[in-house]
């Protein structure tokens, strides 16, 4: 199986205007409201499975969380389901 590709959190800026990419913030709604990457969708990790049907398979999903661990876990799960994914390591708090 293919390895999950990771990027440094600071590299998210490169993807903000990419129409073929959706940036997903996996943190809680409260954390999202306190601050997030411009244009990011807030899908807390615990709701990811039920929200998966909204996610277009043809786009790259760029995931981030607080530190990077949840983004890695979610990225692997989505890859297994056939999505194109990258996970940001370092997270929003860094």
From TrEMBL:
Residues 17-92 form the Rhodanese domain. InterPro entries: GlpE_sulfurtransferase, Rhodanese-like_dom, Rhodanese-like_dom_sf. It comes from the Bacteria. PROSITE patterns: RHODANESE_3. This is Rhodanese-like domain-containing protein. It comes from Qiania dongpingensis.
């Amino acid at each position: 199986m293919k390895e999950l590709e990771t990027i440094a959190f600071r590299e998210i800026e490169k993807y903000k205007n990419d129409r073929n990419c959706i940036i997903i913030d996996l943190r809680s709604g409260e954390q999202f409201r306190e601050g997030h990457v411009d244009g990011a969708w807030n899908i807390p990790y615990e709701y990811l499975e039920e929200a998966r049907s909204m996610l277009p398979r043809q786009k790259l999903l760029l995931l981030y969380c607080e530190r990077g661990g949840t983004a890695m876990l979610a990225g692997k799960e989505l890859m297994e389901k056939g999505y194109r994914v990258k996970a940001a390591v370092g997270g929003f708090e860094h």
